[in-house]
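Quick start: read one record
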Amino acid sequence: MGYLRINVNVQAVEAELKKLLTQIQNRQREEQAIEVKSAHGRCPEKLYDTLSSFSNQGSGGILVFALDEKTAFAKVGVYDAQDLQHKVMEYGE
């Protein structure tokens, strides 16, 4: 059995994510390839539609969970990170 080892600079990834969150909050809007879903109380209802839309774009897209458009893109957290990840992976199959 083989495995793939990927080296990731965690600090660089965290810095890039913080930068993206700040940009979204400052602009008070999403971009064509960036979709914000709160996922605070449950898995977003139109998640499949978003993933389908991204798959039809040449460069894909970025899903940002835990921000709420209705409250000026405030951080709201997610209901269950593991379950949300599982559902995103299921929709991607």
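Helices lie at 10-27, 47-55, 81-92.
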